[in-house]
Design goal:
One of its GO terms (molecular function) is D-cysteine desulfhydrase activity. Pfam families: PALP (PF00291). This is D-cysteine desulfhydrase. Residues 10-318 form the Tryptophan synthase beta chain-like PALP domain. The protein has a 6-stranded mixed sheet, sandwiched between helices. The protein has a 4-stranded parallel sheet with strand order 5-4-3-6. α2 packs across α7 and α3 packs parallel to α5. The termini are far apart. By secondary structure, the chain is α/β, with parallel strands linked by helices. The protein contains 11 helices and 10 strands. The chain binds pyridoxal-5'-phosphate (PLP).
């Protein structure tokens, strides 16, 4: 597969490490667990959006854009990484932030990703929960065009066939790492939201005929809807790669049992997962995505879902910057 055919800028510190989780594996007593450190992509706190932005920013530059517009929740990691990428390429950046949780604490509204959005020079504006964010971005783009700007709109999560190429690339990278060390991956597990990560991974793995199943752990939508959006995007991504029809329905599997009350709302499983990774491995997960993804991983290990003598790779998609915004969820005393 010749990904160099597609315009790409360099933003990530790649390849990201693939590391064993020895203490956590021993603690849980199931399969051998590994971690693909996409929290270490290097751009402004790292995370999975950096890989997508390598292709999205290149596409924006190819179109002659001078301004990037994107959207996400208040504590969006995608918004933060987009602001950093835009800064690096001298592009203006407008972030539309949807108040999806209704949280009013200063930590949530001003710290974590929001603090970093501002440090990267992005213009922030807020929209109420349930707003049509695509329509809001289109309206802003129209207004900016009226002022002679050249906006480029990146969808939420950077999830379209351009952004998903970043995770096709990640699939190639991960399989090469496994081949190098003679590791036979039994399963890949990661948090899935706007679907670009899973769509790219699945498409890349199928293109390689790797026969490695991917399990997306949902953070928002119910299973049926999540799987449909991953399948739709994977289908379009395969088409873009010149491999139409390679991704089939059965390649796309999501487990949406770990969402809890809703997007961005803490669960007990998430709190346990964040604490367990921090205390046994020195790895920081996040409250919205990787923490819920790892909660699913841990629960499924305990239920014997993965064969005991297999190797399971958890893709750490990043997000620890948001921990500062969720201080209250961790029930800690307000003094040292
Ligand atoms: C965006 C995000 C995800 C989900 O990735 P999608 O491509 O949107 O499905 C997972 N983890 C973190 C930390 C994220 O920021």
């Amino acid at each position: 597969m010749h990904l160099s055919r597609f315009p790409r800028v360099r933003l990530g510190h790649l390849p990201t490490p693939l590391e064993p989780l020895e203490r956590l594996s021993k603690r849980l007593g199931g399969p051998r667990l590994w971690i693909k450190r996409d929290d270490c992509t290097g751009l402004a706190g790292g995370g999975n959006k950096t890989r997508k932005l390598e292709f999205l920013i290149a596409d924006a530059l190819r179109e002659g854009a001078d301004t990037i517009i994107t959207q996400g929740a208040t504590q969006s990691n995608h918004a933060r990484q987009t602001a950093a990428a835009a800064a690096k390429f001298g592009l203006a950046c407008h972030l539309l932030l949807e108040d999806r949780t209704g949280y009013t604490s200063a930590d949530y509204r001003l710290n974590g990703n929001v603090l970093l959005d501002r440090l990267h020079g992005a213009a922030l504006s807020e929209r109420p929960a349930g707003a049509d964010m695509n329509a809001e971005m289109a309206a802003l783009a129209e207004a900016l065009r009226g002022k002679d700007r050249k906006p480029y709109v990146i969808p939420g999560g950077g999830s379209n066939p351009v952004g998903a190429l970043g995770y096709v690339n990640a699939a190639f990278e991960l399989v090469a790492q496994a081949n190098d060390r003679g590791l036979q991956i039994g399963h890949i597990v990661h948090a899935t939201g706007s679907a670009g990560t899973q769509a790219g991974l699945v498409t890349g793995l199928v293109a390689l005929n790797a026969a490695i199943p991917v399990l997306g752990v949902g953070v928002r939508a119910p299973k049926e809807r999540q799987e449909q959006s991953v399948l739709d995007l994977a289908t379009r991504t395969a088409h873009r790669l010149g491999l139409p029809g390679i991704v089939r329905r059965e390649h796309v599997v999501a487990n949406c049992d770990y969402v809890g009350q809703g997007y961005g709302l803490p669960t007990e499983g998430m709190i346990e997962a964040v604490s367990l990774f921090a205390e046994t491995e020195g790895v920081l997960l996040d409250p919205v995505y990787s923490g819920k993804g790892a909660a699913g991983l841990i629960d499924l290990v305990r239920k014997g879902f993965f064969p005991a003598n297999s190797d399971v790779v958890f893709v750490h998609t990043g997000g620890a910057v948001a921990l500062a915004a969720y201080r209250a969820a961790f029930g800690q005393p307000d003094h040292l």
